[in-house]
Design brief:
By secondary structure, the protein is an alpha+beta fold. It is built from ten helices and 13 strands. It holds the Pfam family APH.
Length: 357
Amino acid sequence: MSGTLTDVSFIEAWFRARIDHLFREPFKPTDVRVLEVDQMSRGVSRQTWTVDVEIENHGTRRFVVRRDHEAGSIIASSLFDEYSVYRRLEGTGVPVARVLWFEDDLEWMPDGRPAYVRELVDGDWRLPALADHSPDGDAERIRLSQEHLDKLALVHSVDWRLQGFDRVLRVPESPAHCALDLIEQCVERIASYGGEPSPVMAEAVALLRARAPRTCDRIVLCKGTNGLGEEAWRNGRIVALSDWEMAVLGDPAYDFAQCQEMIPEIIRNGHRIWGLPEALRYYAERTGTEVTLDRVAYYRELYGLLQFTYTQHVAATIRGMERAPLRFVWTATEVAFRSELRMAKHFAGDLMKEGFV
């Protein structure tokens, strides 16, 4: 049988065929009915769909179907690797949605494309309290920031060898080589895409290699993109860490460089109450691991190269397509241009500002 992700009858037949994967023992229903299938609007790298299912005598449940766009993925990491990260996080204490199965059977792949199914964790990515910049809101903003830091520390504490992450993600030669190894991954990938040479990238890579920090004392599992918009919250706590497409084994500073709005700068009467230095001290107290400001700054610079890498992956994906998706064209052109500006800023200044004599 074959069908589309918008065909409720096909999705219902698919879920019935995989009913043994849907639920944990001893809860084993004999039938399910799909009520609704919707595509979520958030997310860029891949597609995320929700499936509402009615379970006999047990009400309704919601599941998630995750797959690449028709043209492929924007991020270079594979869909199966993303699924494998979720699978290996089970039992570690890291809050993530439970993945149920990876579908690569031609008979059941929606629209003929691989997909994986996971449970939907009830939560919301929005945190209205972060927008309260009044003195009365300081304590709650700091508490939310600390909750996020606690969960990052939990990710970094995962025994990645025991969980088999070394079979999914590349392992740096040593903690001191984390930055250099990440650069080499980017360079190798970009070379494999066969795009046009980029003098900006070449100059940036040379500088990044020369300035690569070597003070990292341990290799940890890093999430990648994290922070506001990337996690599910409920009652002021993180209930699920999502979006693992840029996960790596490396320096914990890599994650601090990619925090989105979860380390607010709070200064009252000229006195710093909270910010990155305080967040790093809090993290060190919780973990015994020191992450320095200069390493975080370095990985923020390196992000321009990471961004350029996935834009070149997209360019290679759509090269030769007669009608490429607009999102992919925009990423391969506008985002690529901006990533080069970001890299150039560190050796040529801000090229978006005009110079006046």
